[in-house]
Amino acid sequence: MPQSMQPAALVIIGGTGDLAMRMLFPSLYFLDRDGFLDKELRVIGAARSTLDRDTFVETVHTRLRTHVAAEHYDESCWKRFAKRIDYVPVDGAAANGFQALAKKLGRDGKAPTEDAPPVVSYLSTAPKLYGPICEHLRAAGLAGPQDRIAVEKPIGHDLASCRALNDCMAAV
Q1: Nearest to 12 by CA among 115, 116, 109, 85
Q2: What per-residue string of b and e applies to 64-75 under the rule 16 or more CB within 10 Å gives b?
Q3: CB of 150 within 8 A of CB of 113?
Q4: N or C: the chain end with fewer CB closer than 10 Å?
Q5: What phi and psi values does residue 145 have, to the nearest 5 degrees?
Q6: What is the pLDDT of residues 49-105, one digit of tens each?
Q7: In this predicted structure, what is the pLDDT of residue 109?
Q8: Does pLDDT of 1 surpass 60?
Q9: Gap between the Cα atoms of 138 and 96, Å rounded
């Protein structure tokens, strides 16, 4: 991936979970507030919940207000940040939702071209889902050479399972 190529989107799989709501979205809000996010970056939550975009954005807002001190919250920054946010229902254990995610990202399920803007998929899920999610991302055309997959630790429960998960992720 060329160093100058900014990601088109950050996809948070497990986007309705506690880690995403308590840590990831507030951190992204602060990065946006302080001018460290590319102005074109989209932040897409993906989770099993069958929410629409507006409900998801309101949930993020409610949780953000809980986890960001009042003196650090700015309504105009929130409104700008909220425009970046979108949502796609995706069950990490099933392949079917990943096609809708690919469509949302302008990918048709085929391997992306090398000049396609990268997608960063952040797996905020149970480690047992890392392998299936990586395979579903690959099958949907969301795990090309320019794309990135980030995972939460722990990765596995021992050295052998860590290596197995690492090998699975490296394969895509």
Answers
A1: 85
A2: beeebeeeeeee
A3: no
A4: N
A5: -60, -30
A6: 999 999 999 999 999 999 999 999 999 999 999 999 999 999 988 888 899 999 998
A7: 61
A8: no
A9: 13
Q: Which helix (DSSP H) or strand (DSSP E) does residue 165 occupy?
A: helix 159-171
Question: What does the alpha-carbon distance between residue 119 and residue 102 come to, in Å, rounded to a whole number?
Answer: 10
Residue 149 has pLDDT above 70, yes or no: yes
Exposed / middle / buried, residue 166 (Cβ in 10 Å: 0-12, 13-18, 19+): middle
Which of 112, 96, 98 is closest to 147 using CA atoms?
Answer: 112
Q: Which residue has the tokens 């392949």?
A: 95
What is the rounded CA–CA span in Å between residue 40 and residue 16? 23
Strands 42-47 and 119-123: unpaired
In tens, the pLDDT along 89-148 reads 999 888 888 999 999 988 876 666 677 788 999 999 988 888 899 999 999 989 888 889
State both tokens at 59. 């949930």
Strand segments (E) across the chain? 9-13, 42-47, 85-89, 119-123, 148-151
- The pair of structure tokens assigned to 55 is 């409900």
